[in-house]
């Protein structure tokens, strides 16, 4: 593998692509090369290999380096291979992926097949030796004026080297990030254990905890993202943060709620609020915990959970009786209604109008006709 | 849990209790809370340091996000529980997932009239990516799954049904039990299923098969094709691929449904 040089993979003038094949892994002699799976390209002049995932990793070898080559049949669990025996590397060879190798041959392992055709074309090229007839000149770089070929080659190699350094740097960054993450998690775990110890002590009443201290403890748990089963029983899930949030929401949602018949699904509220905020968004749990505090804070909104599990925020002024009466009136008026029809009438979402109809049904004012054509509600005359 | 009582008697009692505990080497809860406050500050600055070095990594690498989430879960921490949490504030993980949640809800809402509130994870992924635009951060399916898990807190029946090696994402509170799920899995191959296929494939009686398929019809998750050759076919819009489906507006859908 020490015969390969770094390459940009660009074809040179007079060089033509003959065939390419994906899913090829390189071997340095009998050992897997320290490269991933890639694409191998055969041109009139060279054998080029490029990493499938990282296109900047690209190497090549002139066909003139090949002494001979042979097929190696596939075996159980082994892909078919082409073994290529090579001349020693010239002393002025450009840098490549390997400085030295104890092997004088490489292998191409065809993990996605294609070896038959590749072998055939390689044979053709090695027979015709087209590279001898049309010596390739260097590809012209995009910006610079023409220079001596040697200088240009150095320029390209310099770029290659920078890219390789950058790639190594990225890899290093990621592994450093993981290491730092590990250390961070160890510290976080200590916090979790401490909080568990505190929670069990509160439960067992070991020590005298004030209201204040409990609230502080809950806010610590919130900061760390630790679940809080013990104090939730006595104090609910809210903290000062949620109280503030509840007040903000109450201000913010008055108008939208009025526009939507006094009721909005919680998912709709979530989208509305977060779109308005733009950043420092609320988590779903933040929203739920804040809404749970409406009643205790005497705000004019309520969080309501229907039997189906649908959660809504509704204006307190829209009482249950009003909703039921309105549902009954509308249904009686039209004789019967489906959720879709009711939704159109009120300008509500189908989901919420269905909940109102179900509620009226639950209270005995409506009854249903459930068929494959849909769910239709009638006034209950029984 | 009781408040500190007032009065000399209560104070004396408290001191006695404290002494007893300290004698036994037990640390009191309130002392630990004070300790936690200090440790929290220390942790916060560690996290700040981590963020200054690696915040980009979280944004750029979905692999790193997976690793991060799994480690948090292992130690018992939920970095997405609150937007006010340290993790969210300093690493920005919160905003990433909460915004994704908004995008998921909006896609599901927009397509509900067509698929009844059931969509493949693949299609959801494609549409969310499209909505985010060319210059936005890439998101993986793992990211979507985590965002959806968080959305469950808001009721509304967000759930995931394993089907054909991936998932169907449910965004309406339709009641789907094991029977419905297994029929969905059966229909995954062709996008539709007949009563006979359900009977033979699952070895059910005709009545059970019919009952389950009718429920899917009622919930708007299946459409009935009575004009198919042979038996009527129950089609599941959620399983339509882009090639065979055509976008229908909510108005058109209302006109089409029985």
From TrEMBL, chain A:
<dbReference type="GO" id="GO:0043328">
    <property type="term" value="P:protein transport to vacuole involved in ubiquitin-dependent protein catabolic process via the multivesicular body sorting pathway"/>
</dbReference>
<keyword id="KW-0813">Transport</keyword>
<dbReference type="InterPro" id="IPR021648">
    <property type="entry name" value="GLUE_dom"/>
</dbReference>
<keyword id="KW-0967">Endosome</keyword>
<dbReference type="InterPro" id="IPR037855">
    <property type="entry name" value="Vps36"/>
</dbReference>
<dbReference type="Pfam" id="PF11605">
    <property type="entry name" value="Vps36_ESCRT-II"/>
</dbReference>
<dbReference type="InterPro" id="IPR040608">
    <property type="entry name" value="Snf8/Vps36"/>
</dbReference>
<keyword id="KW-0963">Cytoplasm</keyword>
<dbReference type="Pfam" id="PF04157">
    <property type="entry name" value="EAP30"/>
</dbReference>
<dbReference type="InterPro" id="IPR036388">
    <property type="entry name" value="WH-like_DNA-bd_sf"/>
</dbReference>
<feature type="domain" description="GLUE N-terminal">
    <location>
        <begin position="1"/>
        <end position="138"/>
    </location>
</feature>
<comment type="subunit">
    <text>Component of the endosomal sorting complex required for transport II (ESCRT-II).</text>
</comment>
<comment type="similarity">
    <text>Belongs to the VPS36 family.</text>
</comment>
<dbReference type="InterPro" id="IPR011993">
    <property type="entry name" value="PH-like_dom_sf"/>
</dbReference>
<keyword id="KW-0653">Protein transport</keyword>
<comment type="function">
    <text>Component of the ESCRT-II complex (endosomal sorting complex required for transport II), which is required for multivesicular body (MVB) formation and sorting of endosomal cargo proteins into MVBs.</text>
</comment>
<protein>
    <recommendedName>
        <fullName>Vacuolar protein-sorting-associated protein 36</fullName>
    </recommendedName>
</protein>
<dbReference type="GO" id="GO:0031902">
    <property type="term" value="C:late endosome membrane"/>
</dbReference>
<dbReference type="InterPro" id="IPR036390">
    <property type="entry name" value="WH_DNA-bd_sf"/>
</dbReference>
<dbReference type="GO" id="GO:0043130">
    <property type="term" value="F:ubiquitin binding"/>
</dbReference>
<dbReference type="GO" id="GO:0032266">
    <property type="term" value="F:phosphatidylinositol-3-phosphate binding"/>
</dbReference>
<keyword id="KW-0175">Coiled coil</keyword>
UniProtKB/TrEMBL annotation, chain B:
<keyword id="KW-0963">Cytoplasm</keyword>
<comment type="similarity">
    <text>Belongs to the SNF8 family.</text>
</comment>
<dbReference type="InterPro" id="IPR036390">
    <property type="entry name" value="WH_DNA-bd_sf"/>
</dbReference>
<dbReference type="InterPro" id="IPR040608">
    <property type="entry name" value="Snf8/Vps36"/>
</dbReference>
<comment type="function">
    <text>Component of the endosomal sorting complex required for transport II (ESCRT-II), which is required for multivesicular body (MVB) formation and sorting of endosomal cargo proteins into MVBs.</text>
</comment>
<dbReference type="GO" id="GO:0043328">
    <property type="term" value="P:protein transport to vacuole involved in ubiquitin-dependent protein catabolic process via the multivesicular body sorting pathway"/>
</dbReference>
<keyword id="KW-0653">Protein transport</keyword>
<dbReference type="Pfam" id="PF04157">
    <property type="entry name" value="EAP30"/>
</dbReference>
<keyword id="KW-0175">Coiled coil</keyword>
<comment type="subunit">
    <text>Component of the endosomal sorting complex required for transport II (ESCRT-II).</text>
</comment>
<dbReference type="InterPro" id="IPR036388">
    <property type="entry name" value="WH-like_DNA-bd_sf"/>
</dbReference>
<dbReference type="GO" id="GO:0000814">
    <property type="term" value="C:ESCRT II complex"/>
</dbReference>
<protein>
    <recommendedName>
        <fullName>Vacuolar-sorting protein SNF8</fullName>
    </recommendedName>
</protein>
<dbReference type="InterPro" id="IPR016689">
    <property type="entry name" value="ESCRT-2_cplx_Snf8"/>
</dbReference>
<keyword id="KW-0813">Transport</keyword>
